Amino acid sequence: MAEYTWPAAGDRLHIGKHISRLDGPVKATGRAKYAYDVNRRGMLWAVMVQSPHAHARITAIDTSAAEAMDGVVKVQVIQDVGTEIQWAHDEIVAVAATSEEVARDGAAAVKIEYEVLPHFVNERAVDEAPDAQPAQAETTGDPAAAMASAPTKSSGTYHVAQIAHCSLESHGQVAEWQDEETVTLWASTQAISGVASQLGERIGIPASNVHVETQYMGGGFGSKFSVDRWGVVCAELAKETGRPVKLMLDRDQEVTVAGARPSTHAEVSTAADADGNVVAWDSKSWGSGGPAGANSPPLPYVFAFDDQTHMHTSVPTNTGPARAWRAPRHPQACLVTMRALEDLAHAAGMDPLDFFLKNIDKTGERSGTYTEELEKGAELMGWRDRWRPRGSGTGTVRSGLGLALHTWGGRGHRSNCEVLAYRDGLVEARIGSQDLGTGTRTIIALVLAETFGLGLEQVKVTMGRSVLPASGASGGSTTVGGVSGSTRRAALNAVDAVFERIAPRLGTEMANLELKGGQLHFKDGSMAAMPWRQAATLIGVNPVSATGANPGPGQLNDSGVGGIQMADVSVDMETGVVSINRMVAVQDCGLILDMKLAESQVYGSLIMGVTYALTEERVFDPHTGQMLNADMEFYKLAGIEDVGEMIVHMMTGPGYDERGVIGLGEPPVIAPGAAIANAATNATGVPINEMPMTPERVLAAINGGMA
Amino acid sequence: MRAFEYSSPRTTEDAIRMLSAEGAVALAGGTDLLSLMKDGAAAPSRLVNLKAIPDLTGAHETDGGLHIGATTRLGPLGEHRVIRESFPAVAQAIAGVRSRQVLSMRTVGGDLLQRPRCWYFRAGFGLVPMHDGQSMAKTGDNRYHAIFGNAGDAVFVNPSSLAPPLIALGASATVLGPDGERTVAVEDLYRTPASSDESEFTLGAAEIVTGVTIPMRSSSNATYEIRNRKGFDWPLAAASVAASDGGARVVLGHAAPTPWMSAAAAGALAGGISEASAQAAGDAAVADAAALSGNGYKIQLARVAVKRAALAAM
Question: Can you tell me the ipTM of this complex?
Fold first, then answer.
């Protein structure tokens, strides 16, 4: 039986190296086909009619004019008369037509009447919320008493705006029925297996008859786990019309209805003793991600104090509903906690680096990791030489440093993999996972190649189809641990199965065989090593097949990482414009399979973090409740000129590698905003408590317009 | 989308004739018009492409100054020797566009005549959007709206990159229409509409801008923009300054429904540009600014833009 471990440091062929993603060339040249690129013979286009009102009841729907239009093939009501609409841009009717343009005209011809109801979109004004839902306070110890007797106190109110996912490839799919009972969906999804089950249930056919395919995907960030209304109506229109149907969201739909990260607002009081030990925490937060409000962010974040209390109020609003956004609730909690602790460090007259190190034992089991990471980050940032007390700068443009800590789980999800070895020497992994663009395909290939001792060109990955062995949704940093675990086990089993088949044909025992460096070795030296291609011919016409699963035997993955980030920013004191000079990210994630992909994840996270820190927010019109910046002009994403220099350091080696693989999708995106806000506070000398840190808000803080 | 005719005349005479039809609209670079059509905020019945008219493109020196054809693209114009050497205010405004794609397509005429970026306008509520008898932008989210000329219901801002430097430099525009050609100061291309039924431009029916001429007066000139993003982003404030022996001109962009000339700021610079007079010009420029409910910060940004434009011109 195979031993289910990762190879030791000296025995690694691919693991830990800088390997470029295998699908880079097909993506860069446009040969990679995304859901949006799928065009089928006779295909119809579907466009949805959306509510202009943020809160209304549908009183009448007249589709006759649309149905009478040339080229309109089918009009389908999604939400019927009597339905209470809870957010603007909600989908009410879908129109399928012979072209996108006709479908748009058809959608414009649908007449819907509403009884307009009062709406609430200003979630920041918790006192005005018609349906605020306060939760019970969670209290440990006696924070009031600890606060009262502490010599150093600080308080502040911190704000994180609601943002959208804004995936480059919008949500949507193409649906085509093979027969009355079988449908294929080319979808932009993070969950091919899950979407098959969801759609089957919604349209009343067996899940096994729904084939979902996602070869390439242009971003989801947590917003693409569901088949969604548009997936269901797309399949229904395809069935009704007997033709393939494409329905993809527009940019404005993408940012209004297809995903929001809840806002967080929090009033925090903290206290420290004379030595700089944090002794009390008291926070009250509120926030909204739409009609369901928002769950509490985990406050205090990363740290736990003996005497602490937290209370959260969920604020439902008439805005497009929340979806998981990379590391749900963590970036908001990180901003609130790290800004509050930076303020407390300032009150205590301490360098925040010393202050965080002083209190690092309150982070629990990751405290050793955080200490190593803070020291490493300080070295990369030149923190000890460069940090100056808050507001020491002079002149118009002032620079400052800030830091933040974060944490995440990232244990591998359930995953199944089948490995096939063919007599032409090709080794194939079949796995019902999807590659969101993070490099999952490359990870599977390298684990397979590593296990067989082959080059990456000698293995093949077949994935992205729900008919393949089921693998979990790609969310919560669970994919890399899941697919690497199932692939490693399947590949180890397949090596054994190959040996079992060919050993008799070589007149030896299984146990005498070993695959290494592209060759079959005989441990007893009875025969010279044989190239894998030659050995594989002994497999015969029926390929060898073996499976593996995660979880499974052996520790191949783990959960729980810590990371630290530091920011060096400049603030123009006259304009409030914040510029990123440099970001340093120090991150652990157990055993790193592909250093380049891991670093890329962190780079991408820093860019995303700069974006939500400086420019990104959903703006709603008080009159209509509509989103005013549902475009990429005023829904502002950072460009390459905005992101500054990025330095990434991954923690590896003893203490890290032996934990096995841990996910990296969420951790590095949590802390950039908090680190940048702390740096901007350090630079300006005034608390910069609000994300995004637009010139408007930074100027208000500089001019004392903010609490 | 409304089906439309497309015509591509070779002469201005043909273009004017084709534009005389009801619903006809001139198409230059398309960086604004095409997105308006996709958003449903414009639905022309005919597009008259001006880019195939040879007379309308390119820049050359004339007795009256540097003449720039209306369909000259911003990217190449920014590289033009005279622009770089004599009119840095124009080159800096072009550099501020940031997007390679836009620089490759947007024309001088199109830049001057682009429609406002007001999010109420782009969402289909009109240029002077009203809600329950009140200005929708005034009572709604107006963080990007006007701080000057906003006493009425129109509070959008003029988005042109080139208008502030061209006006500061005293440029004129040539306008051609069914009744022949006329020349107007660039600032006279603009007006503040009283309602969404009115235009924010002074052009008559079937009139087009065929070019602009910048007089070859020696001046210290510069443009300064303040943006949230360093990359492609609309300025929150922009100012152009041109100062010569004959006096100074100061024009603010993204500040009012029209490019906003500040006589007070110009007066502060009349004795020459210094640290002190630049500061004074900034202060003078915003002395009569009026914040709406959510754009007070733009007054400070406008003040700084004027000051820094003056210092850059020094």
Answer: 0.97
